[in-house]
Design brief:
The structure is a homodimer. Chain A is an alpha+beta fold. The first copy, chain A, is built from six helices and three strands; from the N terminus they run αααβααββα. In chain A, helix 3 packs across helix 5 (73-85).
Chain lengths: 123, 123
């Protein structure tokens, strides 16, 4: 069977309702989820994620974010890049600035994985 | 007002119901939470946490955990130590073996922080 012939499975749906405490995570799931947790395992990135999520209109320009930190713009950009590569935020350039928004499905999925035994986001 | 006179606030309670998307995390909260996410930002530790959480009776001996991995016992012990230092699991030696259990409050707190805007664990 060719790789092209494999059905596309939206893992975000299947993992969503199978919290960590219901059945053991398999190696594939763990390999997929660990980088997302690692991406938020940094205080600056955690705050950036929160600032973006809370920003008016649900999106923030990098110019809205730098003021909260005593860090250079390139350092902030590096952390935003890590969050984007993990799929936790999206971005788009509009004119001079790049705008960022969170990916709520990704956060919801991580939240559900850590949730108590009962499914928090039933299908 | 003396420092001694300040009321004691249980941060685990206040953070529980203030998800990341409701109001920006402050630096102190982020510094406190990031190491917990970092601890589970590793596929082996994520699977260990899940194996312990799912184990019969809610606790597992290191002898119950090593079989799931192609890793040496010292490596597994190292990962368990990281999880314990982060406060995600507890442990106790009984005779020959050390037994581990998860700290459900810690997982609940991380889950709540990442949850959608509405509080998932109301007081």
């Amino acid at each position: 069977m060719s790789k092209q012939g494999l059905p596309v499975v939206d893992v975000s749906e299947t993992v969503c309702c199978a919290p960590l405490a219901s059945e053991p995570l398999n190696a594939g799931e763990a390999d997929e989820l660990a980088p997302l947790f690692k991406a938020i395992g940094d205080p600056v990135r955690l705050r950036l994620l929160s600032l973006i999520a809370c920003h008016e209109g649900g999106e923030a320009c990098v110019c809205d974010l730098t003021g909260a930190f005593e860090l250079t713009a390139p350092t902030i950009s590096h952390h935003l890049k890590v969050l984007k590569q993990a799929g936790l935020i999206g971005s788009e350039r509009r004119g001079t600035w790049v705008y960022y928004w969170i990916n709520p499905r990704a956060l919801e999925r991580l939240s559900a994985i850590l949730a108590p035994r009962q499914a928090l986001f039933p299908a």
